[in-house]
Amino acid sequence: MDSEQFWELIEAGKKDVDKLQKQIEELPEPELVDFYWRLEERAADLQGERFQKHMDEDLSEDSIDDLTAWVVRQGEDYFEDVNADPSEIPSEVPEGGARESYTGRIVKLYRQRYDKMVRAREDPPPDE
Fold it and tell me: Which pLDDT score, from 0 to 100, does residue 101 have?
C-alpha cells in the first residue's frame, strides 16, 4: 500500500465509515497490516512535545492517542497542516468529533480472519 492508497482509505472513511469497512474487508492480509501500521505511525507523528504543548495538559495517554488518531481521520490535508504547524492541533477531540477507531476495526477484522492480533510488519503472515 502506498501513501496515496492510504489517504484514499481515510477519505472513504470520512465520507462513510461503512464504505471504509467494506474496503478494509477486501484488503489482502499484507495491505491490511500495512494500513494498520500506517495509521499508528501517522498518529505517533503528532505525539511529540511540539504537539503536546498545544493539547489540554490534563489529557491522558489514551486521550492523546484518540486525539492524534482523530487528526489522521480528518484526511491528508488536515494532517499535513497540523504536522507543519503544531499550534493547529486541537487541545482535545472537538465536541461531536467522531471517536471511531479505524485501528479498532482492523484489529477486530484481523482477529476474525486469523484469530490473533495484527502482526508486526516484519513478522511473517499467518497461514491461511
Answer: 86
